[in-house]
Amino acid sequence: MTSSSWAIDLTHVEKVYKGKVHALRGIEMRVHAGEVFGLLGPNGAGKSTLVKILMTVIRATRADGTMLGRPIGDKATLARVGYLPEHHRFPEYLTGGQVLDFFGALSGVPRAERRKRSDELLDLVGMTNWRNHRVKGYSKGMRQRIGIAQALMSDPDLVILDEPTDGVDPVGRRDIRGMVSRLRERGKTVFLNSHLLSELEMVCDRVAILVQGRVASQGTVDDLTRFRQFYEIEVVPTPSGPAADLLRACLPADAAATLSPVGGGRTALRGQLTASTWIELDCATLRVGTQDPATVAPLIDRVRASGLTLRALRPVRPSLEDLFMEAVTDPTTGRTKLPGAESAEARP
Fold first, then answer.
1. Which of 204, 229, 234 is nearest to 315 (CA)?
2. What is the pTM assigned to this prediction?
3. Does residue 123 lie within any of the structural domains?
4. How would you write the pLDDT of the chain (348 residues) with one tens digit per residue?
5. Are 176 and 130 contained in the same domain?
6. Residues in Cβ contact with 237 at an 8 Å cutoff, skipping those fewer than 6 apart
7. Which of these three, 221, 255, 273, is where a domain ends?
8. Of 43, 72, 129, 281, which residue is most buried, by most CB within 10 angstroms?
């Protein structure tokens, strides 16, 4: 893929604060042009620090990479970027229309175009009826809507939104997701920083999970869960005997012989259907570790032939929350990693 295909291409970004606290430790991240990209992580993971480095609000200790094809920190490039900071503040004596006019002027938008863009953007964010009302009387959700509108006044190629749904009610979050989708339809690249996992999963093409200043994983949710997807077969409990025993009888004999307790306080049994396909038997549910329907079909035939009634057959994919919890859990201790950056003294 050519460099022009990347809106953001970071090969090494590092930020060390006083006290040798490593907020960012060698960030590598790529954002496709024209996609919605989500950056997520626990509080203190370095998300806002990275955004502020991209926007030159703070200086990186080291920053190798490009944004819109130019080196990070290139001032001319920032004119092509729309930015909504976290905890933004607008002068409360201004009206919504005046806020957009003010930021349009700061962005060099000609006066004649500012009014036209203001009308379009106020309509986009659902704030037309509030154009002449002062910001002082706006709710948090309304301020976020105006904030998104001001980020779009210069018709940017890249839009960076730092916690755009923070403090917004469910209706407002739905509307903001709709705005983001419409921006993608217009060919804009949208970079979202958020800790609301469900919001990102619904709107993002790809995500990156940041933990203690490093990118733990990145890609589409499908890519990140490709080898952890499975099928779940659930049957209706029957008075003929425990459902687990009846389901076990539906398995090939060699597969049933591999079943053993999962442990960890669970009552499930786990084994192998084939060398590459795991199975798990849990009460009235049989899980099969495959994405291939052809692997599951013979088992369904066996279940039906045994007289059991299927209650559900569903493909299951780990959620973004599952991926997140896996990323923030220490595999050696099983405990959640401490929030915040890591000091040099804490490193091995």
1. 229
2. 0.81
3. yes
4. 445 689 999 999 999 988 788 889 999 999 999 999 999 888 788 888 999 999 999 999 999 999 999 999 899 999 999 999 988 899 999 999 999 999 999 999 999 999 999 999 999 899 999 999 999 999 988 999 999 999 999 999 999 999 888 778 888 888 888 889 999 999 999 999 887 787 788 899 999 999 888 998 899 888 888 778 899 999 998 887 788 888 999 999 999 999 999 876 678 899 999 999 999 999 999 999 999 999 999 999 999 999 899 999 999 988 888 887 887 777 677 677 765 555 444 444
5. yes
6. 243, 284
7. 221
8. 281
Asked whether 194 and 40 are in contact (CB, 8 A), the reply is yes
Tell me how far apart the alpha carbons of residues 122 and 116 are, in angstroms, rounded to a whole number: 10
Q: For residues 175 and 127, is the Cβ–Cβ distance under 8 A?
A: no
Same domain, 209 and 234: no
Q: Where are the beta strands (DSSP E) in the chain?
A: 6-17, 21-25, 29-32, 36-40, 62-67, 70-71, 81-84, 158-162, 189-193, 206-211, 214-219, 230-235, 260-263, 266-274, 277-282, 285-288, 310-316, 342-343
